[in-house]
């Protein structure tokens, strides 16, 4: 049986600041310790902000695409982000493009997508976790999580939970070289407890194309997906 995507992990210089920012933008509650953005319903994915001393040196391999219901709603999301400490961010977008590119207080890029985007219809506030990656990695994650492929064309892939909610997408080639550890990643949980079940799940993921980095005190068992992106299994 596939693992569960237990949380997205988000490296931060100050986890409580980023959790509060994203709680304000997405209008979601934050855990009592100030480090986890809680899921309001089963379609949402908890986001765990964890301390990191690494400075951000380039664009993240993943970014959030936030949805909007109307132009007024798009403007309200942008206003909330700016009021909470975000800023406009230039990634080479043209002035006439309808989406708005922003960065959070630590420089992590995200987009507020215009209303009426058909691909993100009925996905939720975080319409997509948009990634830089190969078709192979999209198919790996479909098998690893048991989430169906909802897009697999021209080397672009996307998966979505059977419950709906956020899509995870990979844009295909050219894929930028990976120069640092992932700042936004996946935390998986084996659905059955116990060391034998955990070992069996590691074997399953390795057979699908993962590599094993071993155990770290804070992150649990750390593996690499076929594109070399770190993820943890707890």
TrEMBL record:
<dbReference type="Pfam" id="PF18029">
    <property type="entry name" value="Glyoxalase_6"/>
</dbReference>
<feature type="domain" description="Glyoxalase-like">
    <location>
        <begin position="8"/>
        <end position="113"/>
    </location>
</feature>
<protein>
    <submittedName>
        <fullName>VOC family protein</fullName>
    </submittedName>
</protein>
<feature type="domain" description="Glyoxalase-like">
    <location>
        <begin position="134"/>
        <end position="234"/>
    </location>
</feature>
<dbReference type="InterPro" id="IPR041581">
    <property type="entry name" value="Glyoxalase_6"/>
</dbReference>
<dbReference type="InterPro" id="IPR029068">
    <property type="entry name" value="Glyas_Bleomycin-R_OHBP_Dase"/>
</dbReference>
